[in-house]
Design brief:
- The chain has 147 residues and is mainly α.
- The chain has a single domain (14-118), classed as Winged helix-like DNA-binding domain superfamily/Winged helix DNA-binding domain (Arc Repressor Mutant, subunit A, Orthogonal Bundle), CATH 1.10.10.
- It contains 6 helices and 3 strands; from the N terminus they run H-H-E-H-H-E-E-H-H.
- The protein has a 3-stranded antiparallel sheet.
- The longest helix has 21 residues, at 98-118.
């Protein structure tokens, strides 16, 4: 255990890196009045509108209280609309408003620029290895997490 240093721990490094990435992306999204969490939800909706809140939470890996808070903020800003489902009167389908479509088109290049700065200097091969490693880690977490 004496050889174990927190600074070298995979968990510590991933958490530290995640927080730094979020702070960096936040600076780029601030001008669009979006947080990284809100951006990820808007971006997901831009790729598949008309899904319900539960499906959106699954796709964005957010729990129900978090997705509710984000959707409330996005609705208040006029970025999304909720439409009653024709098949389930208790459920709402989520759509981007015209303003939401406009803002996601403006914000996506800014978010992409922030991410490109984060991976600056990495080769395509290194990026592919990183993607594969992150996917495997996520799969391992899913496999070992008890619900």
């Amino acid at each position: 255990m004496n050889d174990y240093w927190q600074d070298e721990s995979i968990g510590f490094l991933m958490g530290k890196t995640y927080r730094k990435i979020v702070m960096h992306v936040t600076t780029y999204l601030r001008e669009f009045d979006l947080t990284p969490e809100q951006f990820s939800v808007l971006f997901c909706l831009s790729k598949q509108e008309g899904i319900n809140q539960k499906e959106l939470a699954i796709r964005t890996t957010k729990d129900q209280p978090t997705i509710t808070r984000i959707l409330d903020a996005l609705a208040k800003k006029g970025f999304i609309e909720k439409k009653l489902s024709e098949t389930d009167r208790r459920a709402y389908l989520l759509m981007l408003s015209d303003k939401g479509r406009e803002w996601i088109e403006l914000a996506t290049p800014a978010e992409a620029k922030a991410i490109s700065e984060v991976v600056d200097g990495m080769s395509e091969e290194e990026l592919q290895i990183l993607r594969q490693a992150l996917i495997r880690i996520a799969e391992n977490v899913n496999r070992h997490t008890k619900e």
